[in-house]
Write a structure and sequence with these properties.
207 residues; globular; 5 helices; alpha+beta; single chain
Length: 207
């Protein structure tokens, strides 16, 4: 797949394993692995910037939601899997938000299916995949309204907002690039905003 350079742990020449086999392997695995229609893919370790951005976004978003009395919104970090039945895949987004009650794939509550907002922190190895095939797979989720891609080398966020009321173009997305330390992200799916300066607090950019 173009732009996706994460190491595939096994040969991609044929279907590797079933969903049930993957879930069994993942339940005892050291580290996390995504499942892409039969392929088991090892997830690389993240950087300090990656960790801080994901953590602070969730922290300050939660504060904004509390201030707005949005008590029915639930936040999940990268430990929660996302099940994508249309592409027969499991992923571990860097963050997810659900409005109302989470819909789980099964009774074990290890994979949700209905996020309204998904967050990914970009890296050189995954940026093209996050913007391309992964975004396409996420777009099959009926509840999915907003996608945020955080740059970990500068104050910059790419925002994709689904135009849910547009009857002419069923799957139209509006793109915004939000840059600068003093900017704010207006989250259309949740009706709150988060300051970029707060999200990038303690993040260090190389010269």
């Amino acid at each position: 797949m173009v732009g996706y350079e994460i190491q595939v742990m096994v040969s991609t020449a044929a279907r590797i394993c079933t969903v049930d086999e993957y879930l069994q392997q993942e339940s005892v695995a050291i580290g996390k692995h995504e499942y892409l229609n039969g392929e088991v893919v090892e997830m690389p370790g993240g950087t300090a910037n990656h960790s801080l951005i994901a953590l602070y976004f969730a922290l300050y978003l939660k504060q904004a939601l509390i201030a707005a009395n949005s008590s029915t919104v639930k936040l999940f970090n990268s430990d929660m899997r996302l099940w994508l039945p249309e592409s027969n895949s499991f992923t571990y987004p860097d963050g997810m938000v659900v409005k109302g009650e989470p819909a789980y794939r099964d009774g074990n509550q290890t994979a949700i299916t209905n996020p309204c907002l998904i967050v990914e922190v970009l890296s050189d190895r995954t940026a093209a995949y996050d913007r391309g095939e992964k975004f396409q797979n996420y777009s099959a989720i009926a509840e999915f309204e907003e996608y945020l891609l955080f740059d970990q080398t500068q104050y910059r966020v790419e925002q994709f907002c689904r135009q849910v009321d547009n009857k002419k173009f069923k799957d139209e997305w509006v793109y915004r690039a939000i840059a600068g330390k003093d900017a704010e992200i207006q989250l259309s799916s949740l009706g709150v905003s988060v300051a970029i300066a707060d999200i990038y607090e303690d993040v260090y950019f190389d010269a």
